[in-house]
Amino acid sequence: MKKYTYIILSVLICWTSACKKLNVAPMNIIQDKDVFTSEGGIQAYMARIYSELPIEDFRYSPTRGLNFFWIISPFSCISGEGLSRDQTSATQETFGYWSDAYKLIRETNYFMETLPKYSGTYSTAQVNSWLGEARFIRGATYFALAKRYGGVPIVDKVLQYPGTSIQELNIPRASEEKVYDFVAADLDYAYANLNASNQVGRANKYVAAAFKSRAMLYAGSIAKYNNISLVDNTGNRLCGMPAAKAITYFKAAYNAAILLDGHYSLYKKAWAAGDKAAQYQNYVNLFGDASSPENIFVRQYHYPESVHGYDSYNVPRQLMGANGYSAEINPTLNFVEMFDGLPKNADGTIKTLDASGKYIEYTNTMDLFANAEPRLRATVIFPGDEFKGQSIEIRRGIYTGSSTGGINRLLPAGSTSNYPAENLVTSSNGAQTPYKLPDGTTMNPAGLSGVFTADGTCAISGFSIRKNLDPNKPTSEVLENHSDETWIELRYAEVLLNRAEAAVELNSLGDQTVGYLQDAFVAINQVRERAGADLLTSAATLTDLNIVRKERRKELGFENKTWWDLRRWRIIDKEQNSTIYRVLMPFYSATDKKYFFDARPDERNARYTFDNRWYYEQIPQGEIAKSQSLIQNPGY
Description:
- By secondary structure, the protein is of the alpha+beta class.
- The protein contains 18 helices and 17 strands.
- The model is unreliable at 1-22 (pLDDT under 50).
């Protein structure tokens, strides 16, 4: 009898006095009949494989992997969205997902082969739905492999050893195209067999369709934009796909997204037209409302049995808990400048200087952001913004020089030098000495959350992250592994953006039969309206694909999606070509009692360069050593 073991235990081989072997199953081994003859057993099996689903959430790190308890450098800190106190250069995933993926694939294959043997216990609909869930998990896992490695071995059955020959175990890599087709087939099966609703955190038919829209959009981008190729000796293209397949995959992404029409909607419970305050609060609320009609697929946490540390690592310094961590993610000025409502120069950069080249001064730091789109304020904490009932103090220092005739630039444009000591008071070595202002009051140079020299737990970019932080968590509970916010892996806004991008791509490829640009126009404006952004004026503007891409980067910022988007568009190597990301440093003028901002490159001189070979990750050398059939990706 085949046994599926959840907990590996030592099995004692017992002999009678006559040396006769007892053919009795040990009582402490879980057998197939214990799992597959009850709904509870199947629920437990499902819970396990869902927990292994490759979701890049609060507990994910490119260097540490999935479900790691201590996360300090998420994707947003290597994609240009944010600066990290710990990460100062470009990198790629280094933990090697290969082995864990194939363990999960084996578990799904085992489930699909074993459940039918016990199908008489359940209705046909139940069996089909469970099989649909397993196919969904397998499809999502193969997508996680394909976007990292390109073509990989397709294993669609349980491989027994001993019992399967070495030759059969040496499965070669399939073409990248075949892997994406396999993913599509699994997700199609899931859509056809799953129910329309399911438990929160488990797939339903529309979850499968949404994942297909994501996976096929990725495949279409690879077919259109990738120029890296690897072909084995049988002619299989392991890295790269025929350009002609782009239209097939973009159509699949578009059609999958349409399947969600009428089943989900953008979160607008607190939204009101023309009311920026309501729109800001609405966007904040959508990440914490469990009943949100926008949530398609989530991973739930619940203290104390399942937790993460997002708040501990990311609150502004003045709100950090006893662990002493804060401000890991610091949004870059590059990210902030993508949004509407900021005063900007002709080149799209933020306007901090007047026509004569002097700093523009403000009574309050928030004045610069007074007209910013609400979505930005709900994503990023500005200097002087309010969070948890406190004004978040972010300063770089105090200017003590004369302001007669205006204040000149502190450094030449583009300089990465440290600020000069003359006419400036700043913090030193992580400590602050209160400075006595002309009116007799005192002020800390950097404020409670500003830039501290040699102290990484501060707003090193001039901004702090707002998205996904719990606004109601007391400081005493802002500790490592004490957070339990739900991770929204896939929401309806992404599906609308998938649909819009696929539509624009199809139009660019010459398919104009169904009004794709108009459909994309409607979808993008739905997202922009909810965000409080300026609406697009016509569908014709979407002939510029960058409008769609920019909208995606704004809406999905800091949700671990932009890294993969930049990779599939094959543009991150261009964006990160010895790049120093920009920051915005607030200063207080002691004589004027006003603030000014200095937009400049990160003064840490942290340079980011993306190696082209990283578009396809290195297959772990240990896996290559095990099989003569595996071919390594180019450049490794």
